[in-house]
Amino acid sequence: MQEARIATLQRMPIFGGMRADILEFVLDAAAVVSIPAGEYFFRENDRAQSMFVLEAGVTDVLKSWDGEQYLLGRLQAGDCFGEMALMDLFPRSASVRAAEACTTLELSTGIFFLIYERDLEQFALMQMNIGREVSRRLRLADERLFRARIEALSMQSDWRVLI
Questions:
Q1: Would you call 47 helix, strand, or coil by DSSP?
Q2: What backbone phi and psi angles, to 5 degrees, belong to 70?
């Protein structure tokens, strides 16, 4: 059972290239959190002390504006969420709600410190993997913003100026 979970983790971007012994350590230290559909993992502006790795289910990432919630995206098994707040130490930037029943691994800041103490190279690899995931999401957000600006500008007469 543990070997199958380790193999599954190794296929996830956040754990790519990590050794089985470190992933076994992570599995032993992490909390398994199950959330029913419609419930929140956390809400925007909550204090952050952990990130989540989605093992099963689908989540909605939501952002509030003027008292309304808007869907930013959907995450599926293999995705992670909550990692930004661990990197920048700010409160949660969005809410995450289970769109269907979900099972996750919750990785606390303490687990990261234990990995750091245990194996600095594997800790650095995990941090780089998280950085790559954040970078991938930033690239996608930049593309969406660019397309939205182009669409808005194309409705104006001088649409070729992006300033």
A1: coil
A2: -120, 140
pLDDT 10s digits, 60-102: 999 999 999 999 999 999 899 999 877 888 899 999 999 999 9
**CA–CA separation, 139 vs 142, rounded Å?**
5
CB-based contacts of 60, cutoff 8 Å, min separation 6 = 71, 73, 74, 96, 97, 98, 99
Q: Name the β-bridge partners of 68.
A: 65
Task: Return the beta strands (E) in 18-131 as ranges.
Answer: 31-35, 40-42, 50-56, 58-65, 68-76, 80-81, 95-98, 102-108
Domains, the chain, ranges and CATH? 2-154 (2.60.120.10)
| Torsion sign across C-alpha atoms 90, 55, 30, 133 | negative
Nearest to 78 by CA among 126, 30, 29, 9: 9
**Angle of the 20-29 helix axis to the 2-10 helix axis, nearest 10:** 110
* pTM confidence score: 0.83
